[in-house]
Write a structure and sequence with these properties.
3 strands, elongated
Length: 191
């Protein structure tokens, strides 16, 4: 998509700026993708670490650099990974475990008992997420006017991929979320 192309363009421009800076300081031998060496890549990784970038961000930047070097016919990234194995960041995305049924029941039970506004609001958001399966961004941009409390549905018009492939949709709300949402809506009107 165009967003991906724009993102990649920004990433490559930033990378070029960094390599030019490192070259001007004598930290790398060049800034040309055709002639970068494993030592140049090591200097680039060191620069990112000193700037405080997370391992996952560094790994993402190296993946982009690897594609650029492959396009330029340069195999230095492969040599870097062998020669400087300990400097190759590992991007480990650890998915949080799903909550089990017992934990879910505890949250539902507590949501039905809460009366204080701030806690009620928090439980309403959590139960709306549980009760609809909406993504965080979809939940964040959901609007009150799109909530139908007679049919217990919500119309989501800010969806993932809305500029390209995403489509607005009607989402049902599970029964266990309705109690806290009703109480939240009533209290919200009084505020």
């Amino acid at each position: 998509s165009n967003d991906t192309i724009d993102d990649r363009d920004r990433q490559l421009r930033r990378m070029d700026k960094v390599f030019r800076e490192l070259h001007s300081k004598g930290k790398v031998s060049c800034h040309n993708p055709k002639t970068l060496t494993p030592e140049d890549i090591l200097a680039y990784v060191g620069y990112q670490k000193r700037r405080g970038l997370k391992e996952t961000s560094i790994a993402k930047n190296l993946a982009t650099l690897h594609r650029l070097l492959q396009f330029a016919g340069n195999t230095s990234m492969d040599a870097f990974k062998v020669k400087y194995r300990s400097s190759v960041p590992t991007s480990r995305y650890m998915r949080h475990p799903s909550i089990d049924e017992e934990e879910y029941d505890i949250i539902v039970t507590h949501s039905e008992k809460v009366t204080e506004w701030t806690n009620l609001r928090a439980y309403a958001i959590v139960m709306m997420a549980f009760g609809t399966g909406l993504r965080t961004q979809e939940l964040q941009f959901a609007e009150r006017r799109n909530l139908d409390t007679e049919r217990w549905t919500i119309y989501i018009d800010h969806v993932k991929g809305m500029k390209t492939y995403g489509q607005a949709r009607m989402v049902p709300i599970r029964p266990e979320a309705r109690t806290v949402l009703s109480r939240y809506m009533e209290m919200r009107v009084k505020m």
